[in-house]
Amino acid sequence: MDVVIVESPAKAKTINKYLGKDFKVLASFGHVRDLPAKDGSVRPDEDFAMSWAVDSPSAKRLSDIAKAMKDADGLVLATDPDREGEAISWHVLEVLRQKRALKDKPVRRVVFNAITKKAVLDAMAEPREVDASLVDAYLARRALDYLVGFTLSPVLWRKLPGARSAGRVQSVALRLVCDREAEIERFIREDYWQIAAALDTPRKDTFEARLTVLDGKKLQKLDIKSQEEADGIKAMLDGASYKVLSVEAKPTRRNPGPPFTTSTLQQAASSQLSFSASRTMQVAQRLYEGVDIGGETTGLITYMRTDGVQMAPEALDQARAAVGKTFGERYLPEKPRFYSVKAKNAQEAHEAIRPTDFSRTPDQVRKYVDADQARLYEMVWKRAIASQMQAAEIERTTVEIEAKGDGRTAGLRAVGSVVRFDGFLAAYSEVKEDDKEDEENRRLPQINSGETLERNKIDVTKHTTEPPPRYSEASLIKKMEELGIGRPSTYAATLKTLEDRDYVTIDKRRLVPQAKGRIVTAFLENFFRRYVEYDFTADLEEKLDEISDGRLSWKEVLRDFWQDFSRAVGDIKELRVTDVLDALNEELAPLVFPPREDGGDPRLCPKCGAGKLSLKLGRYGAFVGCSNYPECDFTRQLGENGENGGAEAGMDGNKVLGNDPYTGEEITLRSGRFGPYVQRGEGKEAKRASLPKGWTPESLDHERALALLSLPRDVGPHPETGKMISAGIGRYGPFLLHEGTYANLESVEEVFSVGLNRAVSLIAEKKAKGNGRATPAALKDLGEHPDGGGIITVRDGRYGPYVNFGKVNATLPKGKDPMSVTKEEAVELIAAKAGKGGKKPAGRKGRS
Predict the structure, then answer these.
(1) CA 436 to chain CA mean position, Å
(2) Do β-strands 510-513 and 291-293 pair in parallel, antiparallel, or remain unpaired?
(3) Could you tell me where the DSSP H helices lie in 490-640?
(4) Same domain (yes/no): 17, 94
(5) Is the CA virtual torsion 11, 12, 14, 19 positive or negative?
(6) pLDDT tens digits, one per residue of 609-649
(7) CATH assignment at residue 9
(8) What is the DSSP string of 399-430?
(9) Which of 374, 408, 611, 785 has the fewest CB atoms found within 10 Å of its own CB?
(10) Considering 444, 464, 484, which residue would you say is the last residue of a domain?
(11) Can you tell me the distance from the alpha carbon of 313 to that of 271, in angstroms, rounded to the nearest whole number?
């Protein structure tokens, strides 16, 4: 019997069925080791030695794997076919070697791109060794991310209190979002006018033509700059005669795009299904791992973390057969279509995302999957099958028209197109997926060269130039891919980190940088510019790919990086906070000092009228304050206007929202060092409530302020205990509370609307799971304490490994291997910890 290691239990269950009784398939549940989140996990002075930690759940799984290996003939590492999958196999192998669980048993590495019986059995027939170059690339990437994060983040904490973290890819992605916001702020809108004529043919058919030439000059988009100018042209066209100069019908071909890669799948799912990047990957993971079809679990799509655009030869044959059967031979090209990827750093050896079986149509799959899975599978199936179909044939007709009147001439153009053969468009139910020529996809009536046309109507429309749009998740991923920043497996996680850090928020599917994010970006651009430059980050990605290919030494790359990086961090440490604030005041002037409505100096304090406003740093982040502090205590959050509410604001800068209907006290919106809040009344007894995450000062009205100040809210008495269930907003978000049991609510809005039945259900679910944080499982049992009263154990907690005896937890010294702790050492640590607390170690009664 061989032991086979995969990542997930679902994958293990499926593959176990494929392989049969001669194999035992176990799941690692993803990575089994990681770098501890503390200093010293990567040590540049020791040639980049790394310390790996195993958490409690992984320790148990690794023990199970080691036990299984005792009776096994060999080990098969069957983790995912990418760099992360190779790393998981390497980690498992390293731990088993340390445990001496392998002895001389053979170790094989197999990879398959789809979880189907054929793909798995074919892979088992072609084993290889763990790819050392892929592992080196993983080690380099992990070390780089650690060194940037754990070296730069503390600098941010000291220089920019409230800033959460910086990261090698994360900070560059944030810079893209912030640079776009700055571009929008600098944008100056311009008005322009466009003119179109509705014209009639001699056969009384009406069509539209746009003005393109005036008095022999080709018009650009912004050339007509005033209503007067537009009206003058309209008057001329109203009295003009119209003649067709030429009619040209030109056939064009539109080719299908390649099958999906990770990023193009995320982009398409965002635009067509409104999925976030992380949601897309969750749904794709389920389709990859498979669903039960006819009593057998089968993977429906190939591996979804890839930047390759090619399909395997057997998949091409299957796709072409499906095209001929589904659409007919006319839709099948003479030869298969081959694609090359344009993205920088792409690894074309990886296969594109495709169905595992093209004969399994979306309609057939729909009954086996949920709605989101069905929609995503349909996208993958259509895109992949369309990639092997004939081009669409489109006839594009262009009509040039001359207008003469009042001694002036003008040129107008009408454009139309007709699909003569739909080709690959037939694969899409909506026929014109991703079509960017909607305006021209209309038929023109019969128009003959040389004939005279009659004016029907002249339309003049005013337009205004628009700033570039904020990035959506999809467009940011596309931009990162174009620049060669990050890898397919990192995009979703990077975006999630930016949101979790409160560096960006998502509003109407657009990424809006928050003040905290813009300050971090401005700081890095001013004092650490090289490491947030797009080219630098992309070049580093190229080096990582060269390591993957075995063309570069991973430690050489780390040495080159660390030499310059550590020097730059050292320089930053010498900066004074005043230098930082001066630079940020200038860099972020539109955000920090927005224009005042009265046109006055935006940096003049609106409260005392004498002080100068400046960026200040508090414990919880940045805010704007007066230079006359403490005599003047004016403060405001970043992004608010100079008067903190304009005409509705009081003399002290507080916005009056109304009065409490019961007490008559005034309710105001205020801004403090810790953010915007609402207050009822004045003085020490005034009720205050901070605005919850997702609420903005602009969206707050009297009704919402009253609701916020009314918290906690009584939901109703529990039907079993008769005790009240309340709903509120706490440090960790919205919650329910009943007799000491807290249950999380999904959103802030639910605090105000949750009913008694749902509240009772959520409380019951939380009680079933157990309150509080579970005690970590023991890594090692050291036996009975010499004084009796219970067992001493070694455990791995939130803040690192420790020894436990009863109610006493004693942290292990830095660098101490938890598995090497002796009972004597543990007793000393426990005694020292108990002594600090002034108490004797309280053991448990009896053994547990």
Answers:
(1) 26
(2) unpaired
(3) 491-500, 515-527, 534-548, 554-573, 577-587, 589-592
(4) yes
(5) positive
(6) 888 888 887 655 678 888 888 888 788 776 555 444 333 33
(7) 3.40.50.140
(8) EEEEEEETTEEEEEEEEEEEEEE-GGGGGSTT
(9) 408
(10) 464
(11) 30
Q: Are residue 566 and residue 603 in the same domain, yes or no?
A: no
Give backbone dihedrals phi and psi of 743, rounded to 5 degrees, phi first. -130, 135
497: in domain: no
pLDDT tens profile 650-678? 334 577 888 887 787 888 888 765 678 88
Q: Enumerate the β-bridge partners of residue 680.
A: 667, 687
- How high is the pLDDT of residue 4? 92
In a domain, 230, yes or no: yes
Residues 237 and 251 in one domain: yes
CA atoms within 13 A on the CB side of 325: 11
* Residue 482 within any structural domain of the chain: no
Domain count, the chain: 7
pLDDT at residue 847, rounded to an integer: 34
Number of CB atoms found within 10 A of residue 595's CB: 11
Distance CA(87)–CA(135), nearest Å, equals: 5
Q: Is there a single domain that holds both residue 751 and residue 678?
A: no
**Among the residues of 196-335, which ranges form H helices?**
227-238, 262-273, 277-289, 313-327
CATH code of 547's domain: 1.10.460.10
Residues in a beta bridge with 244: 401
| Beta strands 23-27 and 2-6, pairing class | parallel
Q: What gap in Å lies between CA 214 and CA 236, rounded to an integer? A: 11
Give the model's pLDDT for residue 164. Answer: 64
Q: How far apart are CA 209 and CA 325, in angstroms?
A: 43
Strand bridging mode 687-690 / 675-680: antiparallel
The whole-angstrom separation of Cα 44 and Cα 559 is 8
In angstroms, the first-to-last Cα distance of the chain is 36
Q: What is d(CA 75, CA 101) in angstroms, rounded to the nearest whole number?
A: 10
8 A C-beta contact, residue 369 and residue 355: no
Helix (H) or strand (E) holding 142: helix 132-159
Residue with tokens 């998502």: 506
Residues 538 and 603 in one domain: no
H-type helices in 692-753, by residue range? 702-709, 748-753
Q: What's the CA gap between 829 and 75, in Å, rounded?
A: 40
**490 in a domain, yes or no?**
no
Q: Within 13 A of 374's CA, how many CA atoms are on the CB side? A: 10
Q: What average pLDDT is seen over the chain?
A: 84
User: 3-state class of 73 per DSSP?
Assistant: coil
* Pairwise CA distance, residues 654 & 644, whole Å: 7
d(CA 610, CA 21): 84
Beta pairing class for 107-109 and 191-200:
unpaired
Beta bridge partners of 351: 310
If asked whether residues 423 and 384 sit together in one domain, one would say: no
Nearest Cα to 117, choosing from 299, 369, 315? Answer: 299
280 contacts 261 by C-beta, under 8 angstroms: no
Say whether both 8 and 118 belong to one domain.
Answer: yes
Catalytic residue among 288, 303, 471, 503: 303
Q: What is the Cα–Cα distance from 575 to 566, expressed in whole angstroms?
A: 15
Domain housing 356: 262-390
**Residue 143's closest CA among 63, 208, 52, 258?**
52
Q: Quote the tokens at residue 654.
A: 């507080």
Query: What six digits make up the tokens of 55?
Result: 């958490």
- CA distances to 57, 313, 316 from 337, in Å: 47, 11, 9
Spatial separation of the C-alpha atoms in residues 178 and 584, rounded to whole Å: 14
Residue 279 CA to residue 754 CA, distance in Å, equals: 26
Same-domain pairing of 519 and 551: yes
CA distance 396 to 831: 87
Residue tagged 């960026």 (tokens): 615
pLDDT tens digits for 765-806? 888 776 544 556 667 778 777 776 678 888 877 667 888 887
- 368 included as an active-site residue: no
Domain boundary among 709, 725, 748: 709
